[in-house]
Design brief:
41% strand; Porin; rod-shaped; alpha+beta; Serine Threonine Protein Phosphatase 5, Tetratricopeptide repeat
Length: 401
């Protein structure tokens, strides 16, 4: 009996031990499957992230060549359709996108067409120029015609000048009009503007006008600072300049003369003059001193002049005057028969003067050339022979205060 009880206890203990071992193994498998499940989930998450990253790269344009070509053709078709529908702004954006992906020269031509339709002729001009520079021949004739058309488009330039009575030259030609605002009808591109006025610093500049668009330009001339103050009391006066308010001109020239009289053969002519300016006109007095081998003529005449401004700092000054001529001869001049041609001593006559001066402005001074300088003694006085004409070719300088 005791033996049976022992056997039962042994069996029970064996069963419990077996059950314990089986429970531990089950726990281990469950935990293992859970780890596998978690690990599998992590692998799945990594795979999704990789796919998502790959998808985002496609959106940014990092695709293979076949896919990129397809995108270019699709966007290009959209651009053409938008252009045909008259949606030039949207078409322009599409063509620019196409060009950024595939820089085909013909796309540059299409971009130029869009800009032209939008009235942005400068951008259109630049696009056509870039197309020509590419060397492509497909749209060569069309691009050249488009450029020529843009270059010939008429535009208006409104020039606001101060002072209002300043002279304005556009591409070397004077701009008419006495108002402060002057209108020029021209074409786009490179042009030259010159504005000037006596007593003011001239301004000459190169300008670039937009194609097909009206433009405005403001020009302000600064007065010349002619006189330097040497003595000014106080610290504030040191180095200050004052501007001349007296519009005076002084000029001087020397040269050679010829005469209509074989008796009075002249050699040297010297002229000085002082004139008061009123815009392009002036009035003053001149002294003309002609030296001969044995005598000389001194002519003094009030005169008036007009200055015609030309491009590139050139001008022509026309002068006419009327005055008195004084002749001094050191000895009597006789002809072959012994007749008296010119008496010795002092003589006088009325004189008419005319000249034309070609001037070039070099800053404070003007260099002048006088190809025509004439003094005509009319015969109203005692100078013989009369009438007598003296012609001179002179060169010198002039200065405007």
């Amino acid at each position: 009996m005791a033996s049976k009880v022992k056997d039962k206890r042994f069996l029970i203990a064996l069963l419990l031990f077996t059950f314990f071992l089986n429970g531990a193994n089950f726990s281990t498998i469950s935990a293992g499957s859970e780890e596998v499940k978690k690990s599998s989930g992590k692998e799945e998450t990594k795979e999704k992230a990789a796919k998502k990253k790959k998808g985002s790269e496609k959106v940014e344009g990092k695709t293979d060549s076949s896919s990129s070509k397809g995108d270019v053709e699709k966007i290009h078709s959209e651009a053409v359709s938008l252009y045909k529908e008259g949606k030039y702004e949207d078409a322009l954006k599409r063509f620019e996108e196409v060009y950024s992906m595939d820089p085909n020269p013909v796309t540059l031509f299409n971009i130029g067409r869009c800009y032209e339709k939008l009235g942005k002729f400068r951008e259109a001009y630049d696009s056509y120029k870039k197309y020509l520079e590419s060397g492509d021949k497909n749209k060569l004739t069309d691009a050249k015609e488009a450029i020529s058309k843009i270059e010939e488009m008429p535009v208006k330039l409104k020039i606001k000048v101060n002072p209002s009575d300043s002279e304005v030259f556009f591409d070397g030609k004077p701009v008419e009009g006495k108002d402060s605002v002057k209108i020029v009808e021209t074409t786009g591109g490179q042009h030259t503007i010159l504005a000037r006025k006596n007593g003011y610093e001239s301004q000459e500049k190169e300008i670039l006008l937009a194609f097909g668009e009206d433009s405005e330009l403001e020009v302000k001339l600064e007065e010349k600072e002619e006189l330097q103050v040497s003595k000014v009391s106080g610290e504030e006066g040191k180095g200050k300049k004052i501007r001349s308010k007296v519009p005076l001109s002084i000029h001087g020239s020397v040269g050679a003369t010829v005469s209509t009289s074989t008796t009075i053969a002249s050699y040297i002519d010297a002229v000085i003059g002082l004139h008061y300016r009123i815009k392009d006109f002036s009035a003053g007095i001149s002294i003309d001193n002609m030296f001969f081998s044995d005598s000389y003529i001194l002519a003094v005449y009030p005169s008036g002049s007009y200055t015609l401004k030309l491009p590139k700092r050139f001008s022509i000054n026309f002068s006419i005057g009327f005055g008195v001529a004084y002749l001094y001869s050191s000895e009597r001049a006789l002809d072959e028969d012994g007749s008296v041609l010119v008496e010795s001593g002092h003589m006088w006559d009325l004189v008419v003067h005319a000249d034309a001066k070609v001037r070039y402005d070099v800053g404070p001074l003007m260099v002048q050339l006088i190809p025509l300088h004439a003094d005509i003694m009319v015969g109203a006085g005692s100078i013989e022979p009369a009438p007598l004409a003296q012609f001179a070719f002179l060169a010198g300088v002039a200065y405007d205060f």
